[in-house]
Amino acid sequence: TQAPVNVTVTGAAGQIGYALLFRIASGQLLGPDTPVKLRLLEIPQAVKAAEGTALELEDGAFPLLAGIDIFDDAKQAFAGANVALLVGARPRTKGMERADLLEANGGIFKPQGEAINAGAADDIRVLVVGNPANTNALIAQSHAPDVPAERFTAMTRLDHNRAVAQLAKKLNAPVGEIKKLTIWGNHSASQYPDIFHAEVAGKNAAEAVNDEKWLAEEFIPRVAKRGAEIIEARGASSAASAANAAIDHIYNWVNGTPEGDWTSMAVPSDGSYGVPEGLISSFPVVCKDGKYEIVQGLEINEFSRGRIDASVNELAEEREAVKKLGLI
Ligand code: NAI
Predict the structure, then answer these.
(1) How many Å apart are CA 85 and CA 297, to the nearest integer?
(2) Which residues contact 173 (CB under 8 A, 6 or more apart)?
(3) DSSP labels for 170-188?
(4) pLDDT of res. 95
(5) What pTM did the predictor assign?
(6) What is the CATH number of domain 157-317?
(7) What are 246-290's pLDDT values in tens digits?
C-alpha cells in the first residue's frame, strides 16, 4: 500500500471540522487506497475540544487513518503537509469594518502561509475555506514565495454544488445530468453562477430553462444567499455541506474531474477572461493528473460579463485593501 498522506486541517474543533474529519478518515478526500495522517491545528483554547474529536476518530476504527496529531503551532502543524485545509478563520462580528476583518484574518493567514513555505511537502495543495476565503488564500500565498502560486486555492465548490442542485430542481432532472456549470469570481454575495455553458442531459441548460427572469431574480440570488437561508432555517451556518464541498474540491484536484465535465475552483488568475493576473478568483476548471487548468475559449455574453466583472472588481478591491494593510 501507499505511504500515508499528511492532511493538515485548521479550525479542526469547529463545526466544519467536525463534519470534515470523519470523511477524510474514511477515505473520501483522496480515495479508498490512500491512508491519511491527520495533523490538526487549533488555537490553544480549542485544543482540548480537538482532542475530544480525536477520541471519536479513534472510535471510528478507520482502516485508512494512520495517525492523528494535534497542534497549536502552525509551523509544527504544516510540517510535511501534502494537503492543507485552511478552515479556521476569524468571523465578522457586530460592528466590525471590512478592514478590521481583513486585518484579523491577516493575523491568521500570514503565519500559516509562512509555515507552509517553511515546512510543507513539495507536492503541497492548499484549499482555503475560512472566509473571506479568496483573499485569505491570497494572503497565505503571498507569504509562501517558495511554493508554486497555483497550489493556493479557495473554495467555491459549495456555491457550485448549490447551483447544480437548484438547476436540477428547476429542470426536474437528476443532479448527475447537470454538467459544466460555472461559479465565477468571489465566494461572496457577488459571485456569479453561470448556466450559459451548462448542460442538462447533453443539451444547453440556459436554453432548457429559457427564463431569464428566473435566472436573474431567483436562481442567482438564491445561490448567492443560500448561506443566509441555511442560517435562518438551521440556526447555525452550513457545516456539513461546506465539509462536503471541501472533500469534492480536493478529491477532484487529486483524482481528476469526470470526462465531459468541469468544476469551479477559486485559483490564481493567469489573466483568463479578463480577470487581473494573481487574483484568486473562481473559474471553470478541469482537473487531470493531479493538476487543474482553467477552461479556455468560453464565449461570455453580456449578461455574464457584467456579473463576472462586478465580482472580480470586489476581489480587486479586497486585494488593494490587504495591500494597504501591509498583509501582502
Ligand atoms: P467555527 O467557528 O465552528 O470553527 C472555526 C474554528 O477555527 C474554531 O474552532 C476556532 O477555534 C478555529 N480557529 C480560529 N483561529 C484559528 C487559527 N489561527 N488556527 C487554527 N484554528 C483556528 O466555524 P465553521 O462553521 O467551522 O466555519 C469555518 C470557516 O469556514 C468560517 O470562516 C466560515 O465563514 C467559512 N465557510 C466557508 C465556506 C465556503 O464556501 N468557502 C462555507 C461555509 C463556511
Answers:
(1) 31
(2) 200, 201
(3) HHT--GGGEE--EEEB-SS
(4) 86
(5) 0.98
(6) 3.90.110.10
(7) 999 999 999 999 999 999 999 999 999 999 999 999 999 999 999
Distance 86 CA to ligand 1 centre (A): 8
Q: For the chain, which ranges sit under pLDDT 70? A: 1
- The helix or strand, by DSSP H or E, that contains position 313, with its residue range, turns out to be helix 302-324
CA end-to-end distance (rounded Å), the chain: 41
Asked whether 238 lines ligand 1 (CB < 6 A), one says yes
Residue 108 near ligand 1, beta carbon < 6 Å:
yes
- The domain limits of the chain are 5-154, 157-317
130 is in an annotated binding site: yes
DSSP alpha helix (H) spans, 150-239: 157-171, 205-209, 212-214, 220-224, 226-234
67 is in an annotated binding site: no
Pairing of strands 199-200, 178-179: antiparallel
pLDDT reported for residue 206: 98
pLDDT digits (tens, 9 = 90+) for 81-100: 999 999 999 988 888 888 89
Ligand 1 center to 220 CA (angstroms) = 25
Give the list of residues 6+ apart from residue 253 with CB closer than 8 angstroms, or none: 125, 127, 153, 265, 287, 290, 292
The grid cell for 73 is: 503551532
Return the ligand 1 atom nearest residue 41 CA: 20
Q: What's the CATH fold of domain 5-154?
A: Rossmann fold (3.40.50)
- The annotation status of 17 as a binding-site residue, yes or no, is yes
Side-chain half-sphere CA neighbours of 273 within 13 A: 27
